[in-house]
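Lay summary. Proteins are chains of building blocks that fold into shapes, and those shapes determine what they do. In this project we predict the shape from the chain. Here is one chain we studied, written as its sequence of building blocks.
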Amino acid sequence: MAGTFQLELVSPVKLLLSRPVEMAVLPAAEGEMGVLAGHAPMIVALRGGVISVTEGGQVTERLFVAGGFAEVTPERVTVLADEATPVEQLSRSAAEARVTEAEAALAEAQLAPPEKREAAMARMLSARAMVAAAEAA
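And here is the predicted shape, written in a compact code that computers can read:
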């Protein structure tokens, strides 16, 4: 049996998950990141995407996060998500509406300072990831 580590997923609304797991795949800003027990310590930025949780050799849970940060230690991973929703609860129509709003905000931000454009782009990419996750559910 593989080793386990404590995974905690916290959103501004509530603690969504807190239990020992074998592996978690996180949507890190630089790409998908698999975490196992004993992982090197780090703090990573998260982009919009799906966290996959593995227990007993099977993916047992998939949660969409709209972005945030993860603190990884050898014994624990703490995810501080801007927003988190179980994938099976995502609505494709709501996600598509979010894409439309994010695209409009990005268009309006074209003449804004770079940090505002980057934030608008991140919101649009997160919304598109939400649509993809809803379609895959």
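What the prediction tells us: Residues 102 and 123 are 6 Å apart (CA to CA).
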